[in-house]
Design goal:
By secondary structure, the chain is α/β, with parallel strands linked by helices. The chain has a single domain, classed as Phosphoglycerate mutase-like (Rossmann fold), CATH 3.40.50.1240. It is built from 6 helices and 6 strands, in the order βαβαβαααβαββ. The protein starts with a strand and ends with a strand. The model has no long low-confidence stretch (mean pLDDT 94).
Length: 199
């Protein structure tokens, strides 16, 4: 199976370097441009599209298919594709957090995987959510099927680590720009590897 993991385009707050998790922002004009540029050379031969429930991902998927004049059926929303919930940290920069919630930041730094963000989600819970969702998802995709998943950088990082058989501490080594994607092929033996799309 071929999985094209595509990060949504830019949103208004992304240039501010703040934590944007489940805050449901829409694409900015620059975000639509991100998607347009990728759609011009991105994958065209796919059978289905799946999206995060957040607007920035839904809008990216819709715009991508419009640019390509695709006739594929409307995207299927999957809740596990949503970005991590940063709770009280949503919409704030790291500098702001250090000034406003110094004790929480210290606890987070001391236990980055286990610490549950106030009113939010721990990194471990986020990993488990995406891991379970992805494990169930691949059983529903045919071996020869090609699909698009429009979601978020955090989600893509986790999927890459799982699909490539890497440890969870490797997720920080993956960086996906807004409106860009990565292609994974998973064989019948469950072994996954990266492919570079020509474009």
């Amino acid at each position: 199976m071929h999985l094209h993991l595509i990060r949504h385009g830019r949103t208004p707050s992304m240039d501010k370097q703040v934590y944007l998790g489940t805050t449901d922002e829409t694409l900015s004009p620059a975000g639509y441009q991100d998607v347009s540029l990728y759609a011009a050379h991105g994958p065209r031969h796919y059978q289905r599209i799946f999206v995060s429930p957040l607007q920035r991902a839904v809008q990216s998927a819709k715009h991508y298919t419009q640019v390509q004049s695709s006739l594929v059926e409307p995207p299927v929303v999957l809740s596990w594709l949503a970005e991590r919930h940063f709770g009280l940290f949503e919409g704030k920069s790291y500098t702001e957090l250090c000034a406003t919630y110094p004790q929480h930041v210290s606890a987070w730094n001391a236990d980055p995987w286990g610490y549950i963000l106030p009113e939010g989600e721990s990194a471990d819970a986020f990993w488990q959510r995406v891991h379970q969702g992805f494990t169930d998802f691949v059983t529903l995709i045919d071996d020869n099927e090609s699909v698009l998943l429009f979601c978020h950088q955090g989600v893509i990082r986790v999927i890459l680590a799982i699909a490539l058989g890497l440890g969870r501490d490797t997720i920080w080594r993956f960086a996906i720009a807004p409106g860009q994607g990565v292609h994974i092929e998973i064989g019948q033996d469950g072994y996954g590897f990266l492919r570079w799309d020509e474009g």
